[in-house]
């Protein structure tokens, strides 16, 4: 899907007109229209403006995917994923439980370079379980923010501030 189509879809999810979106951007309404139709390319430098103005988690994740060549944790939108709070909470709990079970089976007293092939294979499966859990948890957060009319971007930034305060990540001058 082209970025213009993504912009239009996110704008519609947010209930914004092109004019209302343009008021939040350093572009005019006609530029937004040209971007949406693909008649004008959206520069990568301008992605951040659209991410901030739209404050749409799915749009932001797609830009992360595009910027990193596909290295991102996706929003779970497949046909078997039910997007109601109870079902997503159950999914997140199940994935977290499976990841925890895999983590408990890793012999952490052994250096990684001393692990057998079977142990290394188990670590790889554990990584996949952890990524499944991260995707399920992220999808739950996105849907809860949407249902509660909360800003996903604001919540993520506050969380990052909390991580910095707890010294879990280094301070960033961004």
From TrEMBL:
Please report a single Pfam family linked to this protein: HTH_31
**Membrane-crossing residue ranges in chain numbering:** none
Kindly list the organism's lineage: Bacteria, Bacillati, Bacillota, Bacilli, Bacillales
**One MF annotation (Gene Ontology) recorded for this entry:** DNA binding
Species the sequence originates in: Halalkalibacterium halodurans
Highest rank taxon of the organism? Bacteria
Its recorded name reads HTH cro/C1-type domain-containing protein
InterPro entries linked: Cro/C1-type_HTH, Lambda_DNA-bd_dom_sf
Domain HTH cro/C1-type as annotated: residue spans? 7-55
